[in-house]
Amino acid sequence: MAPKTEILFLGATGYLGAGVLTRLLNHRKASEFSITTLVRSTEKGEALKKYNPTLKYAVGSLFDKADYPVIENLGKNADIVFSIADADYLPWTVALLKGLKARFDATGVAPILIHTSGTGILLFTSDPAGNHSDLDLADVKAVPPTALHRNVDLAAIGADEAGYVKTYLICPPLIAGLASGPLYDAGLAHRNSIQAPALMRPALDRKQAGVVGDGKGVWAAVHVDDVADAFILLFNKIIAGAQGVGHGWEGYYYLENGELSWNAIAGAIGKALVELGVGKSPEVTSFTSDEITKYYKSEFASSVVSSTCRAKGERARALGWSPKYGVADMLAGLKPELEFFLKKAQAEGKVDLTPNHGVDAMLQRFVSLSQA
């Protein structure tokens, strides 16, 4: 019997990761995979095993230096890594790559690293409003090293250039949709999206939809299920040895299926507020300076929720990726997600404005790491 493919999965209980993991567990070749997840507690690991007994787990944190030997060891035993947990903290990435280098030295076969970055890297280019294509290699390379996510991207690409890892970088833009599926239903994974809640939670608190500035900024957008499908499509192409599957610098895969403006998002939120009996008017108003301080804490975070970031996802489409959800679907999906936050607020007796899985949390962490 051939040995199973050893898969290390980082981010199994995250918004994106849980959907990808579910698809892996239901894969037609699932019996040929041995999947190990990294979790922060034994309780979470046992809960995952209860969901699917074939899963293995190791306990550790990407942000605790004491756990880096664990992460390195996991890399030593991995044929394929799905990295869907963090895109900005370099130390754990270094530990993982050290382990993958040891794997390559022992086997002579370069492990596969499928890492989640994001089109947020394009905010730091000279023209974030330009229609950036992932097939434009010069444009991809022009992103400055100080950009969001870029420190980890460059380390992963460096490993690819050195020949001991094959690196593939999935770059979602604004991700929409309330995630659904067994892991979410079991309470094991985060269900809410990343960017839109940065407008939803303030809207619930002030009982009126709002935007930063004029709200005219536009982002490329994609549905969470289409992102998960792209991961599996890329994975399938890789394990099949398909031709034309770029890696390294040619392994950037921007994912998008249309664009959403902050005004459009806020408008859908405002309409939903009225329909849910929270707001009296669907009108969208600009946040005051005091509100910006209250809701976003940092000027940088608030600037992103008014920014423009365009991208063209051509590389994944060339492999056959065909997203199912368009802009109208994404806007329609904002009401169920707003209702999710409303029910949470009603249960807790307040709107939770603590940065958590929103864009503000990610950006504040990026700022703190940049200043460290």
TrEMBL record:
InterPro entries named among the record's database cross-references: NAD(P)-bd_dom_sf (IPR036291), NAD(P)-dependent_oxidoreduct (IPR051783)
GO CC list: cytoplasm
Signal peptide: none
A GO MF term: aldehyde dehydrogenase (NAD+) activity
Cited PANTHER family: NAD(P)-BINDING DOMAIN-CONTAINING PROTEIN-RELATED (PTHR48079:SF6), PROTEIN YEEZ (PTHR48079)
Protein name: Uncharacterized protein
Protein's organism: Rhodofomes roseus
Taxonomic classification: Eukaryota, Fungi, Dikarya, Basidiomycota, Agaricomycotina
